[in-house]
């Protein structure tokens, strides 16, 4: 009998202890959660992607229904646009039933990878499933691309390598305007605004931590590094970074990998971005570690005004942990771990970091880091 996938959502961030059990073997329902293709960092990696057919907007509020409703489908997401700097910007969002008449709720911004799309990333990450169960608002913004061929983000690269960067698209301003729009329409808690993303989407979350730190509580980039040359946050921002140590698109140690996008000169090492946010947080230099799953180790810097940590997937490639391996990943022999669900891990980190921004106060060091 397989055990339940259980892990400490503090993931060595020292926030809240969870049971340490062996991961479940993924069942059919788990596989359905990640049925869509994972966006790829380089535009050429997403050739053949078909834009989703247009849909009429669906209402943001749904009937509460049963005590344990079925997970919302993609049709439960509302399609919307926002005009910013003379451009129509698109996004999808989901608000749980309690948003209609309840207290302020957290807002999670989830950014697709380079050359990808909001809808396909929503189908992969399924944050709206978590939002329905946990009671938060999630938005999937759409990046801009050339002739509709996938969306890109301006992550502040020293050497611009995508449509948004080459055209100096103000994605930071777009995100700020999107937060304003959603806050005007929905009960957004300004103290609980989070950002995550895959690959280039993760890189954008880093840039938001650097340039929008007054409005972003914490970030959780997956397979994306800091690309902004000069990162100077004005406020501490929590960080959980997840990365495979065999990533050949965005190498953990920086530089170029076998499948790094052609126009990218080189990437910074993962730990450079982590170190910048650690210093801003005021966290200790001492590092603690905890095993998250058979192939994943997490690390945590104690103290500080915001939790700082990262998880390394041994043998992991450029992937969203917990998803099914896609055809392009098969072709490139990309290892995709199924030992944990990164969507659940990220939300657990966000939820706990908002409740207890100072890990030391939880008094869990000895319990969590008992190596």
Walk me through what this model shows.
The protein is an alpha/beta fold and 371 residues long. It has one domain: Rossmann fold, CATH 3.40.50.1820. It is built from 10 helices and 10 strands. It has a 10-stranded mixed beta sheet with strand order 1-2-4-3-5-6-7-10-9-8, with helices on both faces. A hairpin with a 2-residue loop joins strand 8 (287-293) and strand 9 (296-301). 54% of the residues are buried. The model is unreliable at 1-68 and 358-371 (pLDDT under 50).
Task: Describe the secondary structure blueprint for this structure.
Layout: H1 28-33, E1 78-84, E2 87-94, E3 105-111, H2 118-125, H3 127-134, E4 137-141, H4 163-166, H5 171-185, E5 188-198, H6 200-211, E6 218-222, E7 238-244, H7 270-281, E8 287-293, E9 296-301, E10 308-313, H8 327-331, H9 342-355, H10 365-368
Parallel strand pairs: 3-4, 3-5, 5-6, 6-7, 7-10
Antiparallel strand pairs: 1-2, 2-4, 8-9, 9-10
* H-E string: HEEEHHEHHEHEEHEEEHHH
Oligomer: single chain
Low-confidence stretches: 1-68, 358-371
- Dominant shape: globular
Class inferred from helices and paired strands: alpha/beta
**CATH architecture level-2 label:** 3-Layer(aba) Sandwich
Q: Distance between termini?
A: 28 Å
How big is the Rg? 19 Å
Q: Major β-sheet, in short?
A: 10 strands, mixed
CATH class: Alpha Beta
CATH H-level superfamily title: Alpha/Beta hydrolase fold, catalytic domain
Proportion of residues in helical segments:
10-25%
Number of domains: 1
> Roughly what fraction of the amino acids lie in strands?
15-25%
Total number of beta strands? 10
Mean pLDDT: 80
* Strands ordered across the widest β-sheet: 1-2-4-3-5-6-7-10-9-8
Number of helices: 10
């Amino acid at each position: 009998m397989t055990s339940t996938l259980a892990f400490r959502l503090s993931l060595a961030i020292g926030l809240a202890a969870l049971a340490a059990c062996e991961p479940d073997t993924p069942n059919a329902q788990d596989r359905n959660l990640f049925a869509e293709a994972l966006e790829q960092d380089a535009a050429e990696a997403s050739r053949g992607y078909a834009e989703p057919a247009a849909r009429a907007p669906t209402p943001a509020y749904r009937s509460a229904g049963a005590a344990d409703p079925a997970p919302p489908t993609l049709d439960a997401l509302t399609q919307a646009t926002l005009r910013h700097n003379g451009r129509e910007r698109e996004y999808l969002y989901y608000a749980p039933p309690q948003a209609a008449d309840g207290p302020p709720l957290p807002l999670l911004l989830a950014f697709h990878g380079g050359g990808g799309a909001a809808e396909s990333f929503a189908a992969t990450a399924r944050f709206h499933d978590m939002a329905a169960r946990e009671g938060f608002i999630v938005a999937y913004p759409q990046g801009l691309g050339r002739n509709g061929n996938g969306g890109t983000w301006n992550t502040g690269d020293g050497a611009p390598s995508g449509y948004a960067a080459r055209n100096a698209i103000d994605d930071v301003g777009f995100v700020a305007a999107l937060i304003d729009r959603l806050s005007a329409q929905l009960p957004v808690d300004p103290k609980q605004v989070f950002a995550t993303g895959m690959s280039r989407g993760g890189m954008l979350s880093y840039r938001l931590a650097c340039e929008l730190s007054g409005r972003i509580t914490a970030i959780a980039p997956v397979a994306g590094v800091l690309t902004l040359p000069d990162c100077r946050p004005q406020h501490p921002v929590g960080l959980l970074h997840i990365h495979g140590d065999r990533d050949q698109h965005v190498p953990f140690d920086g530089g170029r990998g076998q499948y790094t996008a052609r126009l990218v000169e080189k990437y910074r090492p993962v730990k450079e971005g982590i170190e910048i946010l650690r210093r801003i947080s005021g966290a200790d230099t001492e590092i603690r570690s905890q095993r998250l799953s058979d192939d994943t180790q997490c690390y945590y810097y104690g103290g500080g005004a915001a939790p700082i940590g990262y998880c390394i997937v041994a043998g992991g490639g450029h992937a969203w942990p917990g998803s099914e391996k896609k055809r392009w990943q098969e072709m490139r022999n990309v290892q995709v771990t199924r030992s944990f669900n990164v969507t659940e891990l990220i939300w657990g980190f966000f939820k706990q970091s908002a409740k207890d921004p100072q890990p030391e106060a939880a008094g869990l060091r000895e319990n969590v880091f008992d190596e």
